[in-house]
Design brief:
The structure is a single chain. This protein is an alpha/beta fold. Helices cover 40% and strands 16% of the residues. The chain contains 12 helices and 8 strands. It has an 8-stranded mixed sheet with strand order 1-2-4-3-5-6-7-8, sandwiched between helices. Helix 3 packs across helix 4 and helix 5 packs across helix 8.
């Protein structure tokens, strides 16, 4: 049966209008988030990387009564430093100076046109912030992708890490063992298609175990706002490059070399894993099993402490702040 072209076009327009109607009103955000206010003043350091002049953003939250210790908070891939707002406030209230960078390619930091990303590079950039501030030692806390950066930092600069904390990090397993490789170009094409609905669907399923709360909208809206930017193709390209870095540079084989006092905070309902959509149902069930991965990592890092948060997913400091912050404070003060 031949369907009239006019009817096909009208149906397509109807589907598009319904999809748009399901999306809330999102503010378009520019490539450097200049129209998005962070919770604390933002400073920058200048970097020259692979022939390109770049700037790296960070917040420096100083306590009114310093206890002499510094905590560095490293963000995940689908986030920026702003989502540490509540964590930074409580830490500062307890006397800690808090440094919160946006990695190159993320948040208010530069998005290079041509760069070879590596975790070693991100660590060197992160160390450059500390060096510029004259900070010798830190307590290093990384969430999600930030956990991979924190791990590499602790391995590269062990003398600089007083304590090491991982909050639902990715990189606890080597995905390339089970997931077929995707080129940067394929990651890029996928990123170009992203919008509010696709981001929300992924995060609701992987991060928040099927339960969406209004508190999550703020961080989703930043991602969605970027898709409305005239420079979204540039943002998407950086995202594709960092996906390739994450996929090809696992840190799980080196946890045995961590010597710093370590705390693992693991939400037990987290099922985050790169490339789950590229494998069979049977393989998918074996990926992102955080109850198992947390225990395995705890065994690899001798002397580490494991805090398992039942009923919590990928972002404990957003989903259940009180349950996240208390074990963190206890560990920092121990």
């Amino acid at each position: 049966m031949n369907i009239p072209i006019k009817l096909i076009v009208m149906s397509s327009l109807l589907i598009t209008s319904i999809t748009k109607a399901q999306q809330p009103s999102i503010t378009p955000l520019d490539i450097d988030l200049t129209n998005y206010q962070y919770p604390y003043p933002v400073q920058f350091i200048s970097l020259n990387i692979q022939g390109e002049a770049l700037k790296m953003a960070y917040m420096d939250v100083k306590p009114s009564k310093a206890n002499g210790h510094v905590v560095m908070l490293l963000h995940g891939k689908n986030f920026n430093g702003a989502y540490w707002r509540e964590t930074a406030k409580i830490l500062a209230d307890n006397g800690y100076r808090v440094i919160i960078p946006d990695q190159i390619g993320f948040g208010k930091s530069s998005k290079p046109k041509h760069i070879q990303y590596s975790f070693q590079l991100l660590v060197q950039n992160t160390k450059a912030i500390l060096d510029s501030l004259g900070i010798k030692t830190v307590c290093m806390l990384g969430h999600s992708m930030g956990g991979m950066v924190a791990t590499r930092f602790t391995l590269m600069y062990p003398e600089s890490v007083e304590k090491f904390i991982l909050e639902n990090p990715i990189g606890l397993e080597d995905w390339k063992v089970k997931v077929p490789y995707q080129s940067v170009d394929k990651w890029y094409q996928t990123e170009l298609k992203e919008d509010y609905n696709s981001f929300k669907k992924y995060e609701e399923e992987s991060y928040y175990h099927g339960v969406w709360k209004p508190a999550y909208d703020e961080w989703l809206n930043v991602e969605a706002g970027w898709t409305l930017s005239k420079d979204y193709d540039h943002i998407a390209w950086n995202s594709a490059l960092t996906y390739d870095m994450i996929f090809t540079q696992p840190v799980c084989y080196e946890f045995v070399n961590i010597k710093a006092p370590t705390l693992l905070i693991i939400g037990q309902l987290d099922r985050t894993a790169m490339g789950k959509n590229l494998v069979s149902d049977d393989v998918r069930k074996t990926l992102g099993n955080y109850p198992v991965l947390g225990k395995l990592t705890h065994e690899k890092i001798k002397g580490s402490k494991l805090v398992e948060l039942d009923g919590i997913g990928h972002v404990p400091h957003i989903e259940a702040f009180a349950r996240f912050i208390q074990p963190l404070l206890d560990f920092l003060k121990s």
